[in-house]
UniProtKB/TrEMBL annotation:
Its EC number is 5.3.1.9. It comes from the Bacteria. This is Glucose-6-phosphate isomerase. It is an enzyme of class 5 (isomerase). Keywords: Isomerase.
Length: 423
């Protein structure tokens, strides 16, 4: 369970004063009468998910592990960020035992595409193309290139090395997958892209990368209970949601999501999509930004400490690192670092976090929300997903906006299609 500490948040209103509003909104979520209610399938997914498909995901993941060195995950936005966040958080950035996962379909960069294609040319490859609409341009461009590569490299066997995760019936990708005989997995109609990491979108790549998806689902399901109470005293996700609204009333328009583990930088990217697309509408919302400390204390840290007071920080601390390292002694001590000899480097990381909190809070005057998760396991990732899902749903509904649509994302596409000459 994620712990919440609001003692450093400088809140000028009492969170509990919002209890009545929270109860009303929670009721509308549970009863399915809230704005965007056709996209709240994530709420009951831990109970409703398709067991037969789940077993197929596990079997497919095993097949991928047995036959490939590299899994290409081809998708963008909600069809990309979640699986990458989970895989990197749990496996770290340089895993040695798991299959290598490479991401495509998330950029128009010709250099990136060319370099990946060159990198994989002599490797054993499986492709998981992920697109709910089945028509997203970045993904479609990369997938055509990958499909031709796979057909040239594997001939008839290519179709057994390509897996499509898409809508159950609609879209170009679904039609193509059926025609080519690819194994397919379904993105449910009632779960939007940025909530879809809990569906085959996330489950298949995570399982193929060696994550324990049973533990992930257990964390998610436990989160449904732990963050399911309308009573603010019993629900840290809802208290966090209300605290954000209070801070916005106090004039803070930017939320800086801070983590102290480089392998959680994609969690921050995933969180930015979840929060930015959900509440950034109706000319409302808090701009989600992120930083990885202590790395970014040597750059952005200056602004946080002394710059314009536009932001508050939401720190995601981790109690237990995946691996700890003891700092070695050196008899000569020429670098003068022996004062740390025998100490844990994770302890030093935590002291850096403590010192940063004091600096930003006491002399910087920056409000800090502190979230602490037990570790970086698949269970913790699943649990964290439900925490942020519940928080963003409530906080956006408090603004009167629909948390589950993203009309703004479509605008650039219209211009781009015109410029690209799409009919
Ligand atoms: O949240 C969203 O809806 C978007 O970010 C989509 O996930 C992204 O555009 C990819 O869409 P699709 O899965 O249809 O290819």
């Amino acid at each position: 369970m994620i712990k919440l500490d609001l003692n450093h948040a400088f809140l000028k209103e009492n969170v509990k004063d919002y209890q009545e509003e929270v109860c009303r909104i929670d009721e509308s979520l549970v009863q399915g009468t809230c704005k965007g209610n056709d996209f709240i399938g994530w709420l009951t997914w831990p109970q409703d998910y398709d067991r037969e498909e789940y077993a197929r995901i596990k079997a497919c993941a095993k097949r991928i592990q047995d036959m490939a060195d590299v899994l290409i995950v081809c998708g963008i936005g909600g069809s990309y960020l979640g699986p990458r966040a989970g895989i990197e958080m749990v496996n770290g950035l340089y895993p040695t035992k798991q299959i290598e996962v490479i991401y495509m379909g998330n950029t128009f960069s010709s250099t990136y595409i060319a370099q990946v294609m060159d990198y994989i040319k002599d490797k054993s490859v499986v492709v998981n193309v992920i697109s709910k609409s089945g028509t997203t341009t970045e993904t479609a461009i990369a997938f055509r290139i990958l499909k031709q590569f796979m057909e040239k490299k594997y001939g008839a066997e290519a179709s057994s090395r390509i897996i499509a995760t898409t809508d159950k019936a609609r879209g170009t990708l679904k039609t193509l997958a059926d025609k080519e005989g690819y194994e397919t997995f379904v993105i449910p109609d009632n779960i939007g892209g940025r909530f879809s990491v809990i569906t085959p979108v996330g489950l298949l790549p995570m399982a193929a990368a060696g994550l324990d998806i049973d533990a992930f689902m257990k964390g998610l399901s436990d989160g449904s209970g732990e963050y399911g109470d309308a009573d603010l005293d019993k629900n840290p996700a809802y208290r966090y949601a209300v605290a954000r609204r209070i801070l916005q009333h106090q004039g803070y328009d930017v939320e800086l999501f801070v983590e102290y583990e480089p392998q959680m930088q994609m969690v921050a990217e995933w969180w930015k999509q979840l929060f930015g697309e959900s509440e950034g509408k109706d000319e409302l919302g808090i701009l989600p930004d992120s930083a990885c400390f202590s790395t970014d204390l040597h750059s952005l840290g200056q602004f946080v400490q002394d710059g314009k007071k536009v932001l508050f920080e939401t720190n995601l601390y981790v109690d237990q690192p995946a691996i700890d390292v003891l700092f070695p002694n050196d008899d000569k001590n020429e670098d003068g670092m022996n004062y740390l000899a025998g100490k844990s480097i994770d302890w030093a990381n935590k002291m850096a976090a403590k010192g940063t909190l004091m600096a930003h809070e006491e002399t910087g005057g920056v409000p800090n929300i502190i979230l602490t998760m037990p570790g970086m396991s698949a269970y913790d990732f699943g649990n964290m997903c439900m925490f942020f899902f519940k928080a963003i749903a409530l906080t956006t509904l408090m603004n009167g906006s629909n948390p589950f649509n993203q009309p703004g994302v479509e605008v650039y596409k219209k211009n781009m299609f015109k410029l690209l000459g799409k009919e």
